[in-house]
Every structure is written in structure tokens, then in C-alpha cells.
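Write out a record, focusing on structure:
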Amino acid sequence: MLARDIEKRLSPQVEVVSRSSPKEVLAMAKARAAKIVDLKFTDLPGTLQHYSVPMSELDEGSFASGFGFDGSSIRGFQHIHESDMLLVPDPDTALIDPILSTPTLSMFCTVRDPVTGESYSRDPRYIAQKAEVFLRQSGIAELSYWGPEAEFFVFDDVRFDQNQYSGYYFIDSAEGAWNTGRQEEPNLGYKPRYKEGYFPAPPTDSLQEFRSQVVLKMKEAGIEVEAHHHEVATAGQGEIDIRFNTLSRTADQLMMYKYIIKNVARAHGKAVTFMPKPLFMDNGSGMHVHQSLWKDSVNLFYDDEGYAQISSSALHYIGGLLKHAPALLAFCAPTTNSYRRLVPGYEAPVNLVYSQRNRSACIRIPMYSPSPKSKRIEFRPPDPSCNPYLAFAAMLMAGIDGVLNHLDPGDPLDVDVYELPPEEAARVKQVPGSLGEVLTALEDDHEFLLQGGVFTPDVVEAWLDYKRRHELDPVRLRPHPYEFYLYFDA
């Protein structure tokens, strides 16, 4: 059945079935002596927002009536003449905040319009929930599982500024390879060389204890962690892998992941950034996203007879990702800095092909385990600067489009692209090279996102407008420091 044929019978409204009741949340908060309620949500670009109320302000009715806030002050949300909005707590996300010393009940919220009572079209979390509903109503699968691998840098000093007469940044790390000669009284060496941070043991990996403490805080927040390690770059690049979960739940957990690691870093006198490419001439930070579809407890991506043991449904899903990849990157690699990372030579997945094991391909089929339950595909171009609700939803919608329309991904590419003869390498399509290009691609190719009312035209328009006016143009209009090196003596 083609996507356009099922469009007519899909409802854009989401009915969220809670596993936890408000009464259970209040009982848990009382048992843990919570004093404050922290209401969390995400703005359109993907930054965590919050405000807090005393515990006495929360009762069972709050989970229906919500709490008011000014939507015009949130990036990508309302205009000033329609600013009143509601935050409605989701009881399934309730936990005691693992960071704060004051016992605080933390919950993610859905954004609603107080006049109509409807969920807000630009609420990223609502978009993610609609994508899950669309998947079920399409008949393809009952649920999807998501496993992001978010990389990050841990710095000891960060300074930057941009004004009419200067522009600069200075970053430093006790681990930085450039500090082998610094007077540290004493300098004990053990600094990972460029592109050799994967993965020497302590003392070269100086952040083992830091990451372990982050992992323990994540476990307090109910996030299952599978592994943590140093990553390839020098200067404190790391990765903490969380266990796969459903789409909306994984996005919630990724937002908590960022919140926890940034706050633990601050307590250690350090700063964590998920900026994709803060270092020149070393690897950037990506967020490879593992994904699979399931129905009746069966992994629909597994086929013992298929290429790399994947099914025809998985191949069609890959076809959707490859077809829509330029537009997808507007949500999955959504910053100007993302395209400093997506360049050849730094293990970056710039080739629009799929393959088993090949990490230069933008879609990899992991071969670690022969288990049917472990079979999945890994989309590698995303980076952790993205809004996970929007990025995961967009990837799912592209994959669904591929399955519904039986999109052929072509043949896999199981060779090292960098060793191909030049004439063959030139035929391999690559990801776009700038934010401007992917925004134009999204403008030209977003019908697949609108199926079932998952994304709405106003969301796409608001995203394009925000990215162009607040990110693309400001970077484009300012002189780059390296331009002085190139042109000052013109």
C-alpha cells in the first residue's frame, strides 16, 4: 500500500496511554520527600528548558490541567500575541532528579494550547509521539527501537566571543595533545595523540572516573547504560552508550543524558559540549543511531537468508533513508558546525551508501551478533547537536516511506571507498556539504514528513526560518578568522 493511500485513514491526534498514574507519582514523591517539582520540555532547536514549582502545587488534577508558561519566550514557539501555553506533566517520566541536592520530582511535559486544549504542533515531543502512532496505524510495525551513540568532548577551559571588531575561541583540555610541553608543575605526559584516543587505558584516559560517575547518575535516572569509553580524538572526547528503547522514551533519555553529563562535568570544574566539531584536524563528535522495527515481538529487520541477515523491509527502510538523506540532515545534522564534521578523512560517514561493517558508509549493518533480536541498521550522519525528538521522528518517517513504497537502496558497497579508483569513487554519492544545502533539500523534499500529520507545514516552515535567520545568516555574514590569514595582504 502506498503512503498516499493510507494517509486518509490516519488521525493526527495522539492518545498517550500512561503506564504510571498521577496517584502513583504523588506517592513516590511523598516517599522520597520531594520538595520541588521540575517541569522539563524542549524548545524547537533542541535545548532542554524547565521551570519549577513547590511540591504543594502538584496534585492529581495537574496532570490534566497543566501549568502555564510564556510560549513567546521559547525559541521556535509562539508569537507574543498568543504567548500563553500549558505544560502538562507526563507521569511516565517521573523521577527524582539525580543532580540536585534539594529533593526534586522531575517530569517531562507535553505542550498544549490553553484555548483549544490541543497538543501544540511545534512541541518536539508531541511530534515524536505522533510518529510512533503513524507507524502503528500504517500496519508496518507496532513499535520501533532506537539506540543513539552520542559522542562529546570534555574541556577544562572554554572562552569565545564575537563582536564588531574581533572573533575568537580558545578551548583547552588537560588531555590535549598540544599540552605535552606545557608547564604543569609537574606535567606528567599521558596525553592522547591526535586521532589515537580509542581507547588507551588510564592514566592516558584521564576521564575514566568522571564517565563512571556520570553513568551512575544516569542509572539513578532510570537510564540503562551499556558501555562508556574514550573516543578517537584527543582532548577528552568520549562516548556513553545507552540501551535501546522506544522512540519517544529514547529521546527523553537522551535529553536527560545531556542534562546529567553537563552538570556532573560542571561539578568537576569541566565543561561538556555536544558540538560536532570543536577541534580542527581531529575527529568530530557524531551520534550514530541504531534503529529497528518490531511486530508481535518479532524483529522485522531480520532475515537469515538476506544480505547481512537483513530483510526486504530493512532494505526498503534503508532505501527511504538514502532517498531522503539530504532533507533528513536538516534535522539530524542541523548546525553549520555539523558540516565541519561531515568531511572525508575523519571516519565521517559522508557516502550515501549502505554496507555491512563499513564505517565510511552512511548506513552500516552491525555484524556483532547473529541473534535475530540484535539485527538493526545504523544511520551514521546524525550528530548530538540535533533535537532527538525531531531527528528520530524524521528518520522513522523516511524509513516508513521506504517500506510503504518499496524503495530500492541499490547494491551495498562493501569496499573501502577511499581505496577505489578515482573514477569509481566519483560515482559514489555523498552527503551535502553545508547547512544551507540541507535546508534547501528539506524545503524541496518534506512531503514524507507530513504523512499522518506527524510533522505539519508550520513546523517545517518554522524550522527553515529559524535556521536561516538565526544560524545560517549570522555565520555567513561574519568574517572568519582564517580569512585574515588568507586575504589581509590583498
Summary: Confidence is low (pLDDT under 50) at residues 1-12. The longest strand covers residues 143-155. Residues 247-267 form the longest helix (21 residues). The CA atoms of residues 72 and 80 lie 5 Å apart.
